[in-house]
Prior knowledge:
The complex is a heterodimer of chains A (119) and B (407).
Chain A: E1 3-4, H1 22-35, H2 54-97, H3 101-118
Helix pairs in contact in A: 1-2
Chain B: E1 10-16, H1 21-25, E2 44-45, E3 51-52, H2 72-80, H3 93-101, H4 104-107, H5 120-128, E4 130-132, E5 135-136, H6 143-152, H7 173-178, E6 186-190, H8 200-206, E7 211-213, H9 214-223, E8 229-232, E9 239-241, E10 244-246, H10 257-272, H11 275-279, E11 281-287, H12 311-314, E12 331-334, E13 342-344, E14 348-349, H13 352-362, H14 370-374, E15 404-405
Parallel strand pairs in B: 1-8, 1-11, 4-13, 5-14, 6-7, 6-8
Antiparallel strand pairs in B: 2-3, 4-12, 9-10, 11-12
Helix pairs in contact in B: 2-3
Amino acid sequence: MPVIKVPRPPKNAMDSNRPINALLLAQVSNLQHAERRLPLRYRSSIYTHAIKTEGEAAEYIRHVTEAIHQAHSDAEKQRAKQQRRRKPGLEIATAAARPVRKRSSKTKTKTSKSKRKKK
Amino acid sequence: MPTGLDSLKHIVVLMMENRSFDHMLGSLKAVDSRIDGISDQLSNPDTTGASVKPQPTAEFQGQLNPDPDHHFPAVDLQIFGGDPARVANMQGFIKSYFNQRRDVEHSQKIMYYFKQSDLPVLTTLALEFAVFNRWFASIPGPTICNRAFAHYGTSFGRVDMNPFDIIEPYKSIYTRLIKATPKHTAKVYYYDTTSSTMEVANLLQNQPELFGTYKQFLSDCDKGLLPDYSFVEPNYNDHETDSGEEVANDQHPDHDIQAGELLIAEVYMRIKRNPKLWANTALLVVYDEHGGIYDHVVPPACPADKFTAPANSTGTGMEFKFDRLGVRVPAILISPWIPKNTVVDRVFDHASIPATVTKFFLGDDPQRSPREINADIFIDPPSGTVDPSRNLLSLTAMRKDCPEFDV
């Protein structure tokens, strides 16, 4: 079968100044709904009621989409950090639970000796 | 003997925007009479009472401005034609479009459709693989609630574009797959962060890890890393990036149709160029709703959903029980295991997407909406007995004559 030619759109197909359509307006409104739930530091300073063109809508859509990803990514990093902080404590607790009485008694002895020496 | 169905591993859905079946594929009736497209008998009255026939004079851009109304009350007028007895007749398209500009001549453009030669990608794929004669939008309304049916099998009672909440026990198809045992993989590929997704309120906000970009989709195709189920969204807006201009390719009026053709060809070719992926992937190209553009097939009634849209939210003064499908849209299933020139007459809607993906990968799941449970599936699960008349991937040897596009 011969390769079928796919016509490319003309250069003037692109128009970021095109008035925003109902779909993009709804997408902006849905994103604004999501943005309101973001912590303040992630929010944009774009006034959505003033968005009139596709280009302006695109800018807002990008900002909020990236902010949502960033907020989740930061929360994930924070979670990992907290888990790392918790980890040493967990290791000590696990070690303490191990049946190593003999060794621990020696340690105690050593400790007591060293304490005595210090005294 | 094993058929293509037995080798299927990936399902990819590319959902385009706002074009009706007759508008995009109606011309194909002249090529294959089994395709339920445009015929001489079709017409709609304009507001002067004149009968207007569909014309093959649709343009790629600049014709459907303003964007034809496709909110619930407008679609109600398009389907019922304002008939007080409420008999669906598909006679209200011009009347509805006239309401926006009060211009009789302009309102007739809603009847225009594309010639076969205008859409070399979509029409070739329709003739080469399986074209659906009866794939309808899930509800006679706009984008976001229709796309919700593709993600959840319901719109949770919504017929509008506002954010909606997921109501338990229903879950998105992605959650079902990734939480299943054994685990499955699923991804939504939006074009880029500047185009983003139309499912903001739940998927993006709560599960952003589900998303990848179109660039990643292309790379995943090349590397054989596609998940079990992929949902691809087009570029919804014209925007600049560091690498240049990105033209909207969703085909939403008044975006350029050819940009969308290019996208469809690229998705198809990228899968096809990886021989392993091509052999075990089915690609569904479908449109979310008709966008207010003429189609002649009356949407059928269907079993009601669990939810009801109250009269004050439909804009028609009547409640809606989700017991009628929306207007017909183009839908094509693509795989090298599908016989050339397959025409499917069974009824589908977007709830068929999660229904099919669930049945294929997970088997049965009772915690789905009534609409999804009742929706037909377009790929039967390979386990058990598959009715040969329902198996679209029925070939026992892969086709070697599938079309190629220069993308």
